[in-house]
Specification:
CATH topology: Rossmann fold
Largest sheet: 4 strands, mixed
Strand order of the largest sheet: 2-1-3-4
Number of helices: 6
Number of strands: 4
Length: about 150
Amino acid sequence: MSGNTKMIAEMIAEKVGGDLIEISPVKQYPSEGARKYIWGGMKAVMGTKPKLQPYTFDGSYDRVIIGTPVWASNIAPPIRSFIHENREALAGKYIAALVCYAGGGADKALEKLKQALDIDKLNAELILVDPKDKPSSENEGKIEEFCRNVAGE
């Protein structure tokens, strides 16, 4: 909702020459005020899988990076829907993860992501704290290292 994950995903796609698939629910979540946190957090904790806007993912990719904001120490519900809809296409792939957060819970969200994917380990992880509003050379270094890992360097 704040654009952190999208901004970093666009940077990574440019650096590694990847394609982007934006996942969004048919029914949008509240984006302002307390309702944003209450509604989004509740849906994340409940593990809901909202109906998604149309997107194209054909499973032909060898490497997949899943980007998600952290909502209540969990992955965003649309990501859960995407994984559920593409479970077979994601099986056996190189899976990396990008998570952005402002309030904490990134490690728990990564655990929830692995559980949703039914895997023990992600091939690469990138955790950033509010990168849009708090850019830093440390974040730039983390992004560069993540891209090298994803590219197999």
